[in-house]
Every structure is written in structure tokens, then in C-alpha cells.
């Protein structure tokens, strides 16, 4: 049984500005003061010394969160592109207010969340594209590192995709965006069967 502890990065200014960060890796997509505090708080209340290693998205906001979480723990860290946030294509780096003015029918009413069909106008990744790369990562890691405890530091939609895969949810909107610096736990058996233990848990 391989255990996955999946952490969403700390808050960025982009998170609170209504900004489609996607795979943007420049400001405002770096950890802000609150995000740094969140990562330090998680470090203090979720001691990852029990784990064997960390896998992290190549984006700076995830790597900085992983480094803060790993202070004094010194776990080996590997970067994996399959843990990237969803690419919103032409929408990466644009503000939700501007996008809603042009493409309001692709936004869930009352929120900045989008329907799966958004990719038709944004030239971005499909929801299933992210789920598939996450599934490939999960299958490879559970075979290569069977019985290990793995910490993953990644992004909101990517965390959602791990959970979506684990429970084989047919509704693409079943899981809402997890909290910044929350933890989601999934166990994967030798035969690939997955179990979701908890989603978006905040440790305080």
C-alpha cells in the first residue's frame, strides 16, 4: 500500500485577485505573505518526517511551499511535470472579470470556477487531460515506490484530479477547489485500487 499526502501550495496574490494562474510562474503567482505563513503553519502542525520523499510541481509557488514544509525534515525532493496545474491555454494570466465579460457561459454562476467545456474557446487542457497525467503519475509511483509514504506538493486543480480519480467520480464538478496548504490523503493498493481518506484537510 502506497500512501499519498497531497498538499496544495500556499496562497498567492493571484489566488485572491481572481487571476487564472494556470501554469503562469511569475508574479502574481508567487507565495504572498499569507501563503508563506500557511506553509510554515503546515510545517509546524503536519510533521512530514514520517514520509519517504516529496514530489513537487515545477512551478515556483509549489516548490517554495515544499521547501518550507521540508525545513528540518530533509526529505529527498523530485520535480515532476505531471504535477503541474491545469493549463488554461489562452486564459492563463487573464482576470476572471475580463473572461466572464466575454465567456460568461463557461463560468459556474456565482463563482470563478469553470465548466469543463471551457477548453473549446480557451485552447487549454481538458479536465480529463489533467486527470490522465495524474493517473499516470499515480500508477508509476505506486509501482516504483510500493509501501512508501509520499508527500506531493501541487496545485488546486491537480489535487482535485487526484481525488476525482480515486473515487472514480463521473461528475467533473464533484470536487471543489481545495484550500491553500490543505492536505488530501489517498492510499493506493498493489493492484491499483485507490481509497480517499480525506480531502482538503487544514492542520492547525
Automatic annotation (TrEMBL):
One of its GO terms (molecular function) is phosphatase activity. CDD domains: HP_PGM_like (cd07067). Coiled coil: none annotated. It comes from the Bacteria. The active site is at residues 9, 85. InterPro entries: His_Pase_superF_clade-1 (IPR013078), His_PPase_superfam (IPR029033), PG/BPGM_mutase_AS (IPR001345), PGM_Phosphatase (IPR050275). Pfam families: His_Phos_1. GO terms for cellular component: cytoplasm. Substrate binds at residues 8-15, 61, 85-88. This is Histidine phosphatase family protein. The lineage of its organism: Bacteria, Bacillati, Bacillota, Bacilli, Lactobacillales.
Amino acid at each position: 500500500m502506497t500512501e499519498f499526502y497531497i498538499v496544495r501550495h500556499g496562497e498567492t496574490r493571484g489566488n485572491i485577485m481572481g487571476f487564472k494562474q494556470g501554469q503562469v510562474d511569475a508574479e502574481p503567482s508567487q507565495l504572498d505573505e499569507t501563503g508563506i505563513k500557511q506553509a510554515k503553519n503546515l510545517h509546524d502542525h503536519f510533521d512530514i518526517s514520517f514520509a519517504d520523499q516529496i514530489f513537487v510541481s515545477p512551478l515556483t509557488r509549489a516548490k517554495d511551499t515544499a521547501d518550507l514544509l521540508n525545513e528540518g525534515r530533509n526529505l529527498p525532493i523530485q520535480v515532476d511535470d505531471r504535477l503541474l496545474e491545469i493549463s488554461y491555454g489562452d486564459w492563463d494570466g487573464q482576470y476572471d472579470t475580463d473572461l466572464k465579460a466575454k465567456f460568461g457561459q463557461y463560468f459556474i454562476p456565482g463563482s470563478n470556477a469553470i465548466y469543463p467545456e471551457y477548453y473549446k474557446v480557451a485552447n487549454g487542457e481538458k479536465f480529463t487531460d489533467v486527470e490522465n497525467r495524474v493517473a499516470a503519475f499515480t500508477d508509476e509511483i505506486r509501482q516504483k515506490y510500493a509501501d512508501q509514504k509520499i508527500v506531493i506538493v501541487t496545485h488546486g486543480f491537480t489535487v482535485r484530479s487526484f481525488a476525482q480519480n480515486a473515487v472514480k467520480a463521473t461528475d467533473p464538478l464533484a470536487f471543489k477547489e481545495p484550500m491553500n496548504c490543505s492536505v488530501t490523503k489517498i492510499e493506493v493498493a498493489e493492484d491499483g485500487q485507490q481509497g480517499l481518506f480525506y480531502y482538503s484537510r487544514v492542520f492547525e
